[in-house]
Design brief:
heterodimer, A: 537 residues, alpha+beta, Beta-Lactamase, Phosphatase 2c, domain 1, 3 domains, six-stranded antiparallel beta sheet, 11 helices, 41% helix, B: 116 residues, alpha/beta, five-stranded mixed beta sheet, 5 strands
Chain lengths: 537, 116
């Protein structure tokens, strides 16, 4: 092969070394193939030393060069040192066996090859540095974009489960962690809500939780790391702050390094997580408020439904009974209570019932509904008042929840006999107003539904023509003013005395006006019911 | 949630599809690389990575994917991705993978375009 061709092939092969993975072997092959030297070794820089990278078989070479390579091709002690360098840096050297048969032209070839190889390696290193720099730049951009996206995406996610997944995924990918866990406050402790990878126990260690919450910023742990993630050597934990307190703790573990190992989290990770946690806190608070708003909506729908149930079962009109005037007031509180009233008329005898079911909202409304059905069945069977009350007691006690009971007063006006029969089961005393004064129909039994063995007896009083009976619920006498003072029976009795000769309608209106005037500015806390009947003279 | 990556290979007449499930991190990335290099050594020159069941990728996983792409380009082949989550799609765009590998919205479009 002509020398010129051999030299150009040598240089071409050196240029191709840039793409070779086994660089030392490739360099050695190029030098032994295209020069008269058949044996040797290649040393490449590793940090501050020059380490053996490749050698020909049977060639004895030290692992590390004991001195830096010379600046130029140099024969020494049976070896020829070919530095692989540029004017500014040395990448290594090729050592070749010097058999003494070399020419000056061979030396020049080695010099050019060494310089070219130095330039190739420099280019390769610079290209690698540029690639890494480009990657790092893009990676920082990705971090920033991720933080921005996190803000948008988690702010738009109100579902707590989706939000927790998003938080974990972002935490892991941003920090190169292998494991992560999101703990949310449950009382005084922090419970695992979501985890990626193994987590120890259901709750965060209390001591650790206190330390993280107290610190208020991300903390990197190497001691005691195993307490959250089994087998973990290092982890980071940071509090998630809500409006008033720490609402959660985010922890990540096993930060990967490029060489396949696991390392501690660095300051950049802590800074990133710190920015991240503030957005997570806002998102979790938004999610909580959204959940509460939904619950409130559901409660309002329930209240509305309960109110509808109660409205539908109360009498829509008053019965017409000869010789008896009637007036009714039924004002439900906003939070539905359990006031109930009903009338029955049979053979000129008027029966009136006012009841107050314990509790509020839907449970109370359902009990009122059950009470309504039972009363109608019993009355239609022709039962008398005491039987009705006794049977209702058994029914309510058996089928209702333990804390459910009903106070009720059942009154029957017999105009012909000029008597009033009644059963008062734990209800407020009703009033009878006649020419003889104001009399009370006091309770003479437990509220219905408390004791299964309760029985009731009907009591009878005189009810002369022109007398008035007033039934009411405690929503009237316990109506509160803005200071929490109750209306009380004394005020009611004063009105009854003052308007004793007025019609039931007038009496009702005066009582309602007095209650309204007393409670002005205060919310109505309970249902208010008034049932008033007067017989003609 | 499971953090280990699993890779399934579907050899096709004109290439192969790699299905990943799990976290593309260092371990996961190396698993993909091993499968991809085996296929390259077997003269497969078109690879489609279906990431439908991958929700997370970290920076080390990305750098390994870049290495795989570079190796395939050196061999004159091509690599494509499909079924990426919006987060991973944006990540690939920012990190430059989209400059060297085509990203398809779904597998059908990828198979048709790559003639797999």
């Amino acid at each position: 092969m002509p020398p010129g061709r051999r030299f150009s092939d040598f240089l071409h092969e050196i240029q191709q070394i840039e793409k070779s993975a086994a660089r030392g072997e490739a360099i050695l092959q190029a030098f032994t193939r295209h020069t008269p030297f058949e044996s040797g070794a290649v040393y490449l820089r590793e940090g501050t030393s020059f380490r053996l990278s490749a050698k020909t078989p049977q060639w004895i070479a030290p692992e590390i060069l004991d001195a830096d390579p010379p600046n130029d091709v140099t024969p020494s002690n049976g070896l020829i040192f070919v530095p692989l360098r540029t004017p500014r840096e040395c990448h290594g050297a090729v050592t070749l066996a010097d058999g003494g048969q070399h020419s000056e032209e061979d030396f020049e070839t080695l010099r050019v090859a060494g310089a070219l190889l130095g330039a190739v390696i420099t280019n390769q290193r610079m290209a690698q540095e540029m690639r890494e720099g480009d990657f790092q730049l893009k990676y920082r951009l990705w971090e920033l974009e991720s933080l921005y996206d996190i803000g948008l995406s988690i702010a738009a996610t109100l579902n707590i489960d989706e939000l927790a997944d998003e938080i974990l995924f972002r935490t892991i990918s941003l920090t190169n962690a292998r494991r992560a866990a999101l703990f949310l406050r449950e009382g005084t402790r922090f419970k695992v809500y979501r985890s990626f990878g193994d987590v120890r126990g259901d709750f965060l260690d209390d001591e650790l939780a206190n330390e993280v919450v107290k610190q208020g910023t991300p903390m990197s742990f190497e001691e005691g790391a195993d307490c959250i993630f089994p087998g973990c050597m290092a982890f980071v934990a940071l509090p998630i702050k809500g409006n008033n307190e720490s609402i959660g703790v985010l922890a990540a573990a096993d930060r990967e390094t490029r060489d396949g190992g696991i390392g501690a989290f660095d300051t950049n990770d802590l800074r990133l997580l710190s920015s991240f946690a503030s957005q997570v806190g806002i998102a979790l608070e938004n999610s909580r408020l959204h959940r509460e708003a939904l619950e409130k909506q559901a409660m309002e729908r329930e209240l509305e439904l309960a109110a509808t149930i109660q409205r539908d079962i109360l009498p829509k009109s008053l019965p017409v009974v000869e010789g008896i005037e009637l007036a009714v007031l039924a004002r439900p509180a906003r939070q539905v209570g359990g006031d109930y009233h009903v009338f029955f008329e049979r053979d000129g005898v008027l029966t009136m019932i006012v009841a107050d079911v314990a509790g509020k909202s839907m449970p109370a409304a359902l009990l009122v509904s059950a009470l309504h059905a039972a009363i109608h069945l019993l009355f239609e069977e022709g039962r008398e008042l005491a039987e009705i009350a006794t049977e209702l007691n058994k029914h309510i006690h058996r089928w209702s929840a333990e804390n459910k009971f009903v106070t009720m007063v059942l009154v029957e006006i017999d105009r012909e006999a000029e008597t009033i029969r009644f059963v008062n089961a734990g209800h407020n005393p009703s009033y009878v107003i006649s020419d003889f004064g104001i009399d009370e129909l006091r309770s003479h039994g437990l509220p219905v539904g408390i004791l299964s063995s309760s029985t009731y007896k009907t009591q009878t009083r005189s009810f002369p023509s022109g007398a008035t009976v007033v039934l009411y619920s405690d929503g009237i006498t316990e109506a509160e003013d803005v200071n929490g003072e109750e209306f009380e029976n004394a005020r009611l009795e004063q009105i009854l005395e003052q308007y004793r000769n007025e019609s039931p309608e007038v009496l009702r209106d005066r009582i309602a006006e007095a209650v309204d005037a007393f409670t002005v500015g205060a919310p109505q806390k309970d249902d208010q019911t008034l049932v008033i009947a007067r017989t003609a003279r | 949630m499971n953090e280990e990556l699993r890779v399934a290979v579907d050899r096709r007449t004109n290439g192969a599809i790699l299905y990943t499930k799990g976290y593309i991190n260092n371990v996961g990335g190396e698993e993909i690389a091993n499968r991809a290099y085996e296929l390259m050594d077997a003269d497969v020159r078109t690879l489609l990575l279906n990431l439908r069941e991958t929700k997370i990728v970290n920076s080390i996983g990305i750098s390994i994917l870049i290495e795989i792409i570079e190796k395939m380009i050196d061999k004159g082949g091509k690599i494509a991705f499909c079924c990426l989550t919006p987060v991973i799609h944006k990540t690939f765009q920012i990190m430059g993978l989209a400059n060297y590998a085509t990203i398809y919205e779904n597998e059908e479009a990828a198979i048709q375009d790559l003639a797999l």
